[in-house]
Amino acid sequence: MxxxxxxxxxxxxxxxxxxxxxxxxxxxxxxxxxGDNLTGRALYPFPAALLRRSAAVKLAKAADSLRSKGLRLVxxxxxxxxxxQRLLWAARPDRRFVADPARGSVHNRGGAVDVGLAxxxxxxxxxxxxxxxxxxxxxxxxxxxxxQAAANAAELKAAMEAAGFQALAEEWWHYEDPxxxxxxxxxxxxxxxAK
Length: 195
Fold this sequence. Notes:
It contains five helices and seven strands; from the N terminus they run αβαββαβαβαββ.
């Protein structure tokens, strides 16, 4: 069922791919499957993290680089249905932090991922702010951040950029595949995806 749904929206050569297929040690902390997000309620019926395969391969490269340093990726969000983007916009209609669903987000194209870092044991490492904590301290290179959190964010950014992602200046956790801008917006709901 998943393959049939995805093939209607994507070329067979670059389908949405579960990240754990390529990065089995990734820690899924999918915040939109819980109430621990800017809306205060679960927006996904279960935790899942998918990207278009070409972007997932890049993320696997970043994960390999981090793994060689005793680090693991923590994934907060990846592909996001356009219908969920509308819910986020309704909760926080601020283009600095949430993409207007009228134009869509790179998340809605399967080309953006929100990530943090954990140690090899899976324990989360200090980062500049919490995920989706919007404000000046969430920006790359922000002042008023602990030295360890700044170093961890810099390590993450270096690995992600070396793998071919671009950082969003305002959010230490958000990375985009530069090729994704021309990909179609998708609204395949999570119930249509395999768990």
